[in-house]
UniProtKB/TrEMBL annotation:
Known partners and oligomeric status: Homodimer.
One GO term (biological process): response to redox state
Span list, region Disordered: 217-257
Keywords from the UniProt entry: Cytoplasm, DNA-binding, NAD, Repressor, Transcription, Transcription regulation
Annotated ranges, domain CoA-binding: 89-190
Role, per record: Modulates transcription in response to changes in cellular NADH/NAD(+) redox state.
Any single Pfam family the record assigns to this protein: Put_DNA-bind_N
Family: Belongs to the transcriptional regulatory Rex family.
The protein's name in its UniProt record: Redox-sensing transcriptional repressor Rex
NCBIfam families reported for this sequence: PRK05472.1-3 (NF003989), PRK05472.2-1 (NF003992), PRK05472.2-2 (NF003993), PRK05472.2-3 (NF003994), PRK05472.2-4 (NF003995), PRK05472.2-5 (NF003996)
InterPro entries referenced in this protein's UniProt entry, alphabetically: CoA-bd, NAD(P)-bd_dom_sf, Rex_actinobacterial-type, Rex_DNA-bd_C_dom, Tscrpt_rep_Rex, WH-like_DNA-bd_sf, WH_DNA-bd_sf
Residues the entry annotates as binding NAD(+): 100-105
One Gene Ontology cellular component annotation held by this UniProt entry: cytoplasm
Length: 257
């Protein structure tokens, strides 16, 4: 579905044994850890140990990639990350549309981290006619009337929904009908989608509620053993629902069902 470019020469990937392909993610994980620590080069022995692989096997595997390292120096970590990512198809460019360019949509559009991970913001879409044509993160916002054409023209398979909750399902249906098969949903609503469509939901308030739950537990442990145990009080959803406060004077966190 995505019209991404790939840099992978077909002849080379055909020549790589399956067992080597199966080890590439192990090397990549170890190399990514080195890269994050800004380690420039690594010997085959060090990398083999980090990946849990025999070093002779590693050298043979890398020879299929055309990567032989430099005697006395080892392998260039960044280049090897690139080479393996390319073989695994991870350097493919995924065009993404963001629908709903308010506070959140604009922040996402401005986030530079997508591009370095292979996700290109192909278009920004909003229902507000006043926003049409205005640039956000250098990309002109387009009206929702154009949604189907934008998806088709850009070969988009991934859509991000950052509209109010009430609009999300309808936006989702239009995205799916236009050919989108993966949705990242920020709106606080459960989307229903047909088989074959993947939805990932991001909800920071749920994450905060989980942290609040643990904070409450920690606070409880600290006060445990101190003189009096407070009288039984409602906790969780029941307390929040009737507005009563928990034992420590805080409104207890409501855990999602
Ligand atoms: N998941 C999270 O952690 C998280 C965090 C913050 C906000 N949110 C949610 O993200 C959404 C956006 O929040 P915000 O603060 O950016 O809101 P906002 O009001 O600033 O922006 C919403 C935008 O959506 C547009 N819009 C409305 N209906 C539309 C439609 N049918 N098609 C296209 N665009 C449409 C509006 O014109 C507006 O520009 C809300 O649902 C909010 O609850 C989620």
């Amino acid at each position: 579905m995505a019209t991404g470019r790939t840099h992978r020469p077909a002849t080379r990937s055909r020549g790589i044994p399956e067992a080597t392909v199966a080890r590439l993610p192990l090397y990549l994980r170890a190399l990514t850890a080195l890269s994050e620590r800004s380690v420039p080069t690594v010997s085959s022995e060090e990398l083999a140990a980090a990946a849990g692989v025999n070093s002779a096997k590693l050298r043979k595997d890398f020879s299929y990639l055309g990567s032989y390292g430099t005697r006395g120096v080892g392998y260039d970590v960044e280049y090897l990350v690139y080479q393996i990512s390319r073989e695994l198809g991870l350097t493919q460019d995924w065009p993404v549309v963001i629908v709903g360019i308010g506070n959140l949509g604009a922040a996402l559009a401005n986030y530079g981290g997508f591009a370095s991970r292979g996700f290109r913001v192909a278009a920004l879409i909003d229902a507000d006619p006043a926003m049409a044509g205005k640039p956000v993160a250098g990309i002109p916002v387009q009206h929702t009337d154009e949604l189907e054409k934008i998806i088709s023209d850009n070969g988009v398979s991934i859509g991000v929904i950052a509209t109010p909750a009430g609009a999300a399902q309808q936006v989702c249906e239009r995205l799916v009908a236009a050919g989108v098969t993966s949705i990242l949903n920020f709106a606080p609503t459960v989307l229903s989608v047909p088989d074959g469509v993947d939805v990932r939901k991001v909800d920071l308030s749920i994450e905060l509620q989980i942290l609040a739950f643990h904070e409450q537990r920690k606070a409880g442990e600290e006060t445990e053993g101190e003189a009096a145990v407070p009288p039984a009080a409602p906790t969780g959803a029941a307390a929040a629902a009737d507005g009563r406060k928990g034992p420590d004077g805080d409104v207890p966190a409501v855990m999602p069902a």
